[in-house]
Amino acid sequence: MRILTAGESHGEYIISVLEGFPKGVKIEQKVINEELARRASGVGRGKRMSSIEKDKVVIISGLRNKVTLGSPIAMLVKNKDTKIFSQSQDELPVISVPRPAHADLAGLLKYHDTDIRNILERASARETVARVCAGSACKQFLHNFGMKIASFTVSVAAVASLKNPRNISEIIKRAKKSKLNCLDAAKEMVMIQEIRKAQKKGDSLGGIIEVWIDGAPPGLGSFMHFDRRLDAKFASYLMSIPAIKGVEVGLGFAYAKKRGSVSHDAIYCSTTHKANKAFIRKTNNSGGIEGGISTGETIVLRLAMKPIATLSKPLDSVNVTTKKKEKAPTVRSDTCAIVACGIIAESMSAIAITECFLDKFGCDTLDEIKLNYKNYFKLLEKKF
Amino acid sequence: MRILTAGESHGEYIISVLEGFPKGVKIEQKVINEELARRASGVGRGKRMSSIEKDKVVIISGLRNKVTLGSPIAMLVKNKDTKIFSQSQDELPVISVPRPAHADLAGLLKYHDTDIRNILERASARETVARVCAGSACKQFLHNFGMKIASFTVSVAAVASLKNPRNISEIIKRAKKSKLNCLDAAKEMVMIQEIRKAQKKGDSLGGIIEVWIDGAPPGLGSFMHFDRRLDAKFASYLMSIPAIKGVEVGLGFAYAKKRGSVSHDAIYCSTTHKANKAFIRKTNNSGGIEGGISTGETIVLRLAMKPIATLSKPLDSVNVTTKKKEKAPTVRSDTCAIVACGIIAESMSAIAITECFLDKFGCDTLDEIKLNYKNYFKLLEKKF
Amino acid sequence: MRILTAGESHGEYIISVLEGFPKGVKIEQKVINEELARRASGVGRGKRMSSIEKDKVVIISGLRNKVTLGSPIAMLVKNKDTKIFSQSQDELPVISVPRPAHADLAGLLKYHDTDIRNILERASARETVARVCAGSACKQFLHNFGMKIASFTVSVAAVASLKNPRNISEIIKRAKKSKLNCLDAAKEMVMIQEIRKAQKKGDSLGGIIEVWIDGAPPGLGSFMHFDRRLDAKFASYLMSIPAIKGVEVGLGFAYAKKRGSVSHDAIYCSTTHKANKAFIRKTNNSGGIEGGISTGETIVLRLAMKPIATLSKPLDSVNVTTKKKEKAPTVRSDTCAIVACGIIAESMSAIAITECFLDKFGCDTLDEIKLNYKNYFKLLEKKF
Amino acid sequence: MRILTAGESHGEYIISVLEGFPKGVKIEQKVINEELARRASGVGRGKRMSSIEKDKVVIISGLRNKVTLGSPIAMLVKNKDTKIFSQSQDELPVISVPRPAHADLAGLLKYHDTDIRNILERASARETVARVCAGSACKQFLHNFGMKIASFTVSVAAVASLKNPRNISEIIKRAKKSKLNCLDAAKEMVMIQEIRKAQKKGDSLGGIIEVWIDGAPPGLGSFMHFDRRLDAKFASYLMSIPAIKGVEVGLGFAYAKKRGSVSHDAIYCSTTHKANKAFIRKTNNSGGIEGGISTGETIVLRLAMKPIATLSKPLDSVNVTTKKKEKAPTVRSDTCAIVACGIIAESMSAIAITECFLDKFGCDTLDEIKLNYKNYFKLLEKKF
Fold first, then answer.
1. Could you tell me what percent of chain B has a pLDDT over 70?
2. Are B33 and B55 in contact (CB under 8 A)?
3. What pLDDT sits at residue A82?
4. Contact A97, A328 (CB under 8 A)
5. Which residue in B5, B14, B17 has the most chain D C-beta atoms within 10 A of its own C-beta, making it the best mutation to test that interface?
6. What's the pLDDT at D82?
7. Is the ipTM here above 0.90?
């Protein structure tokens, strides 16, 4: 499976093309739109978000009667902004002062350019709309195999949730009622206060997100070559989300602090189950991945989002043309986008695991993949 | 540039093939061997390491008079073990009890196999010998552009270094004298004690490593498509190292706890320099990467290594054939391989940044790349 | 550079996404539309072609003020058919009789499906619209380096042109006046008669096309690894065009019949020129590629197009559901699409050589690439 | 599946690494050696061939008890030449006169170098040894699914065989007795005379080869995206063989001369068979590929080999350093390598189709792939 995304922040459309997606998968536009709505939600979003980003996808290829044809799926989301970048570029003034923590300055240097407009149009979180579209299609594929993906907010700035989920249903249920996708209702209140405070001060906040993938079969990914490892793929796909500065699998950095004897997930035998369920873990410190392969346990990923680069009360910067000190501009005014980031992380995780799933089970049609999937479990049953 | 590695832990050779490496680069076999020696060093290594792993590389293609031809570079490292896997396989007994935290069980499930020997031969840290060979070749290439890569041990288990380096020379200098590649001599003593203690108890330890890349030009990587981001590539390449459970860029997870106003790297103007040096940062919380692109500051990466999976005093496990409870076997007896992991992390970082460097500056010959590199700075000078 | 295309024959749009295209390249929508018009032209086209396929591209991302940003370029072409596939699928009846020589039957088998509609929507020549869009963008890039690409019709069915072009200008000039893109006006008349005859009989015709690439520098492609050869890339990209059954470089199959002493392109010295022009060939039997690398001579490619699969007087076939003998259906009624095929071949050639060009000279900005290109010739001048 | 090859013509080894090859496949070193012997055989080979190239492969990774582990398979073939390139490079004199039709001049230009030795070491037919090793492993995999690959010589220079095989067994049987791998014993005599004559005159000859793949299931490759077409892959892999200037599928260029009504392979119904055998063709002008997908018929590929570039009675050339006219040097003295080329073409075809096979049926273990393969036919049986 291959994905290309396209589209500028103030262009007419954001585009996502998925090539190599199997035939015979039902894809609901409605479900993608719900994901897009989740992406635009959450406390801490600016006005552009709530008023403008009512994104609706139009699938312009790859489907017939809502079912995939096996051909590339192209999805368009119209940018609702009134000024259309590609048509009235002259109206858009030159931007000369880079925002610290944004791609602005590094982008100007890479392209030896002096108009930041040429950088920020693509180095924009709008681009993640395309990833959510692709991710939602992948999730709908994965549902056919009982796989679910959900995320929750672990912390906003210094405020950390004190509740861990027992299972993925708990995450999904809670997400619907929460304004910050946080399992700990009390701490969520503190988080919201923290965001309001930052909003008033013109500051921005980041946070930590956890993604769970439930129902993944064992055997996805491979240790046979370093670039086929499932954890390496997750790391790459999650780190590629704007503002992400850290990725963990399972215990992550905390694992490094423990002794092996008390942290590795001991293996036990099931008295009742066979095949992949013949072996039981009482802990899941590995986060469902050992040796670059899914173990069959829940996959647990964590990612750190830095505060948003654009501040209403902006940072010191420099006008790259005049070389004079200036304050960074305020292009956009989210204070905290932790909820959106969770949805995007789910999407990227869904894409990553779909790719590994198709590698193992073939990629032509859902019917074929389902049979191949069953085969694999039959083979496991013979052995264990 | 493409890399394939091959070779089993008890096979005759570990092999590394680098395709797309530029012509005209001097590669010293001696330098690769020094890196291999570093990989086998450090407190906490078992006997196999010190006695057997005196790895020497033989470059069997791609060089003439020590200079690259532009053709694929194949490097062989002979495994010094007396029993050669590929020749006397019958002597090697079936292994039926998987080690928790190792690829053993996940590997058996993936391949519906019952002999762990078929898994662990490739899912072995021996494979990283090939990465160090490739990484050392890349480092030698990068030296032509003033780029240096070094690593140091931030912590072993719960013992953390209290010293931060001021520059990369300090890291490189210290590394030569240290037994754990740690900048804090006092804490290193405690780390060593911790390792000795674990060794006696048959336990294993992990730790945290920091990698610095000095001298990278701005503009490597790209935000134009998510899979071209420099940080995503680093994340993937570092997470692909066995035992790694977390990767950070710059402040990493700590960044998520801060407010934007106090953590983003404000931009200032140099009064003396031009081109890419025209803009100054007083902090480097971004770790030298903004918007998926190198900023020109030092690139700072951090990775978390879990304790080694194989314990002398082993963990609970199960015989996958008899389905009876059994203790996991002890195949190998390192207690802590943090130093080796640092070298491997440097190697993977070198490979990652070389790939992005060749993308930007062309890949045919060193002479051509050097001119293209100069061009780029001339273009920058014109603008800034 | 990466390309994904999407879109069904009766879907709303055909889509082309170009990722990795350099920044700073002027792209004229008008020029793409002219190429699309050429694609729809030529004697032998059916009514759908002339009345419906007045394709106009809309570039929805990647440009600002007609100049590329370095971001993915997404191009949409609306299908003018009144019935829109994706919206009114129910109206489209099941198709059960495969056309020999079309993807119909092989597609049904691959996807174990019984409705050919699910196959032919993507296995349609409409898809090549996306390739022409991408190819035209590449051509516009290549013009910055004095490279031109043109094609002409060598034969239609058994009628062969007797004229060979002396240079590319001659091809380009002639193409504008010719109805079959043939250099031999007399033979073109016979070709047209042949097409009219076939049209009346409900038959279809193919032919042979030659593509010339003028101005390619030496050194594109590589023999260092088999999959980096320029000729291999051309072969793959040209053979991927629907209906193509053969590809030749230079003398092609005729080369196999000659002795080396009379066919290889002897090398001479220029008395007046330096650098890459220091060496002269009096013949170009190699077609501008030796050892998988461009020599600097005109690149000459030839491709064989089989007759169109859909015939008005159709062939024997089978109803795959009833398993009864039936005549193949007539979905579309071009008799000969040799002119379109030439444009598509030019487009695929443009894409192929652009990829190799960016590999050698870098890919970030046109300014940078231009300087790198000059560098290369300076290095050549020093040596030769 | 990925392949990298390495090794110079006068280096110590030729190396082939196959990554992504399934677990559980029996690979006989002996069988690979037989293929290597075939590669070195045939009338028209020089002395280096017969005396030196008694190539033997050593598989140094990826196997246990002759069965693949799923890990990368590394294969080494020692170059028997006494002078070892990598160790005694100083002894090898500078070469300054490029051979027309060889990579020599284009290589010098690409790398702005003046010593052809740096080019020809890799731009050498020795490199194809690595492809034969990889191809033979693929063939051994394909045998598990009843697939066979064979080739025969269609023509040498202007002498063409008059016999067409009825089935693949005939090709295989004949190949063993023939000195030129030609089905037409009478014409073979003429071909041999032609080669002897050329040999005496210091000339070189090429020819045409046909490759048959028998037993390929329908459904390999895809029309869903242009770069997934089976014919495009074959074209690329065959054109990548040194000296190849043309590739055809099925009727190839002859197809372009026919009318659709008399050339397309009409479809009939089997009265006795089901599934993929339910549909019958009486002709195979498509060469077993329609719409970029295998039809289930025999795959027929044809390739044109130009005469060898190195002539004993050499061509006009130029000393690139002195810029004086000189005769091209004689590095090697095969007169005609058509038999070797056939083996290499079989190998590349085997690699190509194995890749497409693994794409469709999964790639982890032979057992799993066999079940998935059966599944597919069951699905076909349900439908047809």
1. 95
2. yes
3. 46
4. yes
5. B17
6. 46
7. yes
Give the pLDDT score at D83: 54
- Rounded to a whole number of angstroms, the distance from the CA of C72 to the nearest CA of chain A is 5
pLDDT band at C332 (very low <50, low <70, confident <90, very high): low
pLDDT of res. C176: 78
pTM of the prediction? 0.97
CA A281 – CA A263 distance, rounded (Å) = 12
Closest by Cα among B350, B308, B331, B103 to B207: B308
Nearest to D375 by CA among B268, B82, A369: A369
| Contact between residue A293 and residue A6 where contact means Cβ atoms under 8 Å apart | no
B62 touching C (Cβ < 8 Å): no
B chain contacts of residue C362, beta-carbon cutoff 8 Å: 359-362, 372
d(C-alpha D87, C-alpha A4), whole Å = 47
Q: Is the pLDDT score of C304 beyond 70?
A: yes
**Are D206 and C276 a contacting pair at CB < 8 A?**
no
If pLDDT is split at 50, 70 and 90, which confidence band does A45 have? confident
Mean pLDDT of C358-368: 96
Interface mutation vs chain D, best among A2, A226, A359, A365, most D CBs within 10 Å:
A359
- Neighboring chain B residues of A331 at a CB cutoff of 8 Å: none
Q: How far is CA D55 from the centre of its chain?
A: 17
- pLDDT tens, residue by residue, A138-165: 999 999 999 999 999 999 999 999 999 9
What are the structural domain ranges in chain A?
A: 2-383
Cβ contacts (< 8 Å) between D376 and chain A: which residues? Answer: 368
Superfamily of domain A2-383: Chorismate synthase AroC (3.60.150.10)
The residues pairing with C4 across neighbouring beta strands, listed in sequence order, are C17
How confident is the model over B180-195, as pLDDT tens digits? 999 999 999 999 999 9
The verdict on D22 touching A (C-beta cutoff 8 Å) is no
State the distance between the two ends of chain C, measured CA to CA, in whole angstroms. Answer: 32
Q: Are A96 and B283 in contact (CB under 8 A)?
A: no
Q: Does A102 touch chain B (CB under 8 A)?
A: yes
Per-residue confidence band for B82, with pLDDT thresholds at 50, 70 and 90: very low
Cα A259 to Cα B202, B344, C352, D96, distances in angstroms:
10, 22, 54, 64
State the average pLDDT over residues D218-228.
Answer: 98
C367 neighbourhood in chain B, CB within 8 Å = 379
> Is beta strand A279-281 parallel, antiparallel or unpaired with respect to A267-269?
antiparallel
Report the 10 Å Cβ neighbour count for C252.
25
Name, in order, each residue with C-beta under 8 angstroms of B101's C-beta and a sequence gap of 6 or more: A260, A263, A264, A265, A286, A290, B306, B307, B309
Most B-contacting residue of D86, D87, D120 (CB-CB within 10 A), to test interface: D86
Residue D24 touches chain A, beta carbons under 8 Å: no
**Chain A contact for C100 (CB, 8 A cutoff):** no
Q: Which chains touch A (3 or more CB pairs under 8 A)?
A: B, C, D
- CA C135 to chain A, closest CA, distance in angstroms equals 18
Percentages helix, strand, coil for chain B, rounded to the nearest 5? 40, 20, 40
Question: What pLDDT, on a 0 to 100 scale, did the predictor assign at position A333?
Answer: 72
Does residue D81 or residue A105 have the better pLDDT? A105
A69 vs C contacts (CB less than 8 Å): 8, 118, 121-122
Q: Which is more confident, C49 or D191?
A: D191
Q: What is the pLDDT of residue C46?
A: 78
DSSP state for residue A182 in the 8-state scheme = -
* A243's tokens: 């503002």
A10: nearest Cα among A53, A45, A69: A53
The single-letter code of the amino acid at B200 is: K
Put simply, whether C131 touches A (Cβ < 8 Å) is no
Over residues D336-340, mean pLDDT: 96
